[in-house]
Write a structure and sequence with these properties.
8 strands, about 325 residues, 8-stranded mixed β-sheet, 13 helices, about 15% strand, globular
């Protein structure tokens, strides 16, 4: 969520470099650019120096940027940090076509945002679905990618690890079908559900979050999810289950760091270990108590793990 008192969601739009000119976006304000299909995309730059590769933070599905707030404050002291909202999320606009919400499309959106922000060298840090988005974008970034950190996320089929009598990977693609007969009632029910404490305590029970995550951050998450279009969200989750960018990790020359929470039941350690193994320059670090919301539960630990990766990214090739 945006810092400070209520204010306009975005500042003046930025012009993409590919559009015949450029306008440097301001620091500390939310700015809009456009995706290739015209969807409005909101992003924000913090920090004051462009002499080092910028850190680009990629959210999970349905997440706001609130999970990253402590990290932004620390990282932006000596480099640019970019946050952005996916199409259909937060300050960004609804997708031009509802079905155009898969990882390939969102990866294209990422490149549009990087162009609008004028970033030529980046370190991608993805959380949950953001890992898949960043992994999908890797081949398109070329020399721009200096390093990649995967935090509690997989490069494909992010719901494949969720157990139960009906695997989530089969359940989610069918959600929008029955609900589509009563769209208005479904939306009201959706907002009512996320305005209650039920999602938080269900996540605690299922191991998706622990008491170490600040309750204010989790309440922000619930408000954010409740404001989303549930049908767009279901389409995005279904598309994520169909696509897999794991092979891209095996081809990237950039260093890759996988960060896992030992108590994460949504993306367990074995999936982060597999991701680090695929990458030629992969490494794995495990927090002994964290769950799926690792950036919110242990931001200081995440920063300590990122420090060597960022130092490596800062080194210029011979």
């Amino acid at each position: 969520m945006a810092e400070g008192p209520p204010a306009p969601a975005v500042d003046a739009p930025a012009r993409r470099r590919t559009g015949g000119g450029s306008a440097k976006p301001g620091r500390g304000v939310w700015t809009r650019t456009e995706a290739a299909d015209g969807t409005a995309l909101a992003f924000r730059l913090d920090g004051g120096t462009a002499s080092r590769p910028a850190v680009v933070l990629c959210n999970g599905i349905a997440c706001s940027d609130e999970y990253w707030r402590p990290l932004v404050g620390t990282l932006s002291r000596d480099r640019l940090v970019l946050r952005w909202d996916y199409r259909g999320h937060g300050r960004s606009g609804a997708p031009a076509r509802r079905e155009a919400v898969g990882p390939e499309t969102v990866a294209d959106d990422l490149l549009a945002v990087l162009d609008a922000a004028g970033l030529d060298e980046v370190v991608l840090v993805g959380h949950s679905f953001g890992v898949q988005v960043a992994a999908t974008a890797l081949p398109r970034l070329g020399a721009r990618i200096r390093a990649f950190a995967a935090v509690a996320g997989a490069a494909g089929q992010p719901l494949g690890s969720v157990g139960g009598p009906l695997p989530a990977g089969r359940l989610v693609p069918g959600l929008a079908g029955p609900a589509g007969f009563l769209p208005e009632a479904t939306t009201v029910l959706w907002r009512t559900l996320w305005d209650s404490p039920l999602p938080y305590w269900s996540a605690r029970l299922l191991g998706g979050v622990s008491g170490a995550a600040p309750r204010a951050v989790m309440d922000d998450f619930s408000r954010h999810v409740g404001g989303l279009d549930p049908f767009v969200l279901a389409d995005m989750m279904a598309a994520a289950e169909r696509e897999d960018a794991t092979d891209n990790l095996g081809a990237t020359p950039a260093p890759v760091l996988a960060l896992a929470g030992r108590r994460d039941r949504l993306t367990p350690v074995r999936r982060l270990r597999a991701l680090a193994t695929v990458a030629p320059r992969g490494a794995l670090a495990i927090h002994p108590r964290a769950t799926h919301v690792l950036p919110a539960e242990a931001p200081e630990w995440v920063h300590r793990q990122l420090a060597p990766l960022l130092a490596e990214a800062d080194r210029r090739p011979d």
